[in-house]
């Protein structure tokens, strides 16, 4: 048993079980001898309504753990500041008043109710507690939202507040927004509801109208961020977006968007360092988790990779991809561990989206997946260095050609990857497609103790989004322009045709 996070009013724990997302058997949870939860099913779980500065002993039947909650300076209820909680009146001024009055170490409490909000800005050193039944509803009129400028000032006074898809750009502030904050927490069993289905956010979604769409939660250049327990749903774009942040913890969240809603990713760590994602359930309209580091212009300016990212004990369901890298990845992505996760019904499991033009300021490398279960994932593994979506440059011959071009500052680098102890059932398209560039091959792919079984009742489909593509059904592993392939105890049950197909591969070891 491990304590992942503790506040004055909450705590998150990891059982340490080796299973993916769900515990092997349900267990009861006691605090100081009192039963507080029956038949807990998850490897990672959180408890709320704890008392500040109090010692507890956690008992799950199999193990015990002593811990102490943090102290609390003030406890402020937004209702005392005039919040109506009726879903009609704008309660943002009341929330802002409570936050302004909160001293460092304070908790701002939101009881059950529907709170209509225009964006609320957090500040350092406070905890926002959304109790069960509390629902924050985003205002549906975009003209009521403040705009975060992409660029303000010049020289040493130049600042970046807004962003959109890897660039410094004007965007609307989000329902909950934090800029340059330290040691902040959003906790509880309440919901942040972007209310996007009741608005026009998805109409002409590729066109900027006043500013680009807000997220559900947006953190810009913050450090010491904890988001624990809450649900974030129906957001105008991404659910949770940490941007140039450090030391971020995202635990036991529920992130949901309608599958047909565009660019509604779950979690997008963007140019961040030390991000821990655990016990999160994601079902969205785009990628479940998309790790990013900006387009080339942003990468050249800030030279900030996204690094030290862990994703453990998560459930990823509806989504274009489970854990995705890019497509805005020019700053590099380094040192990523994905462990004990369950993927169910995503179009792809692991996926890299990049192409010529993303550049070589940084590389994507040092990625490990282990102890993973993928059920009914169309294509479990994809590395695509010919990704054609986004702006029109993705459809040019420069991007799609498999002729060897000169290596220059626009050539992306894709490095080293390991996939171990994985079970993939219900594969439809193919087990994996790894498309490197002839001038810059993928450096190394290792699969160890990985099995694939197939869904025979599906239709042929494309492994990924690229020009000059062909549909596949029940295919094996395809490697194109890869320096080194290592396969150990990789098994196929029901693949059509060759299990391993290589083109332009330096070396293949299979045992």
Automatic annotation (TrEMBL):
GO terms for molecular function: polygalacturonase activity. SUPFAM superfamilies: Pectin lyase-like. It comes from the Bacteria. The keyword Metal-binding does not apply. Keywords: Glycosidase, Hydrolase. GO terms for biological process: carbohydrate metabolic process. Belongs to the glycosyl hydrolase 28 family. This is Glycoside hydrolase family 28 protein. The lineage of its organism: Bacteria, Bacillati, Bacillota, Clostridia, Eubacteriales.
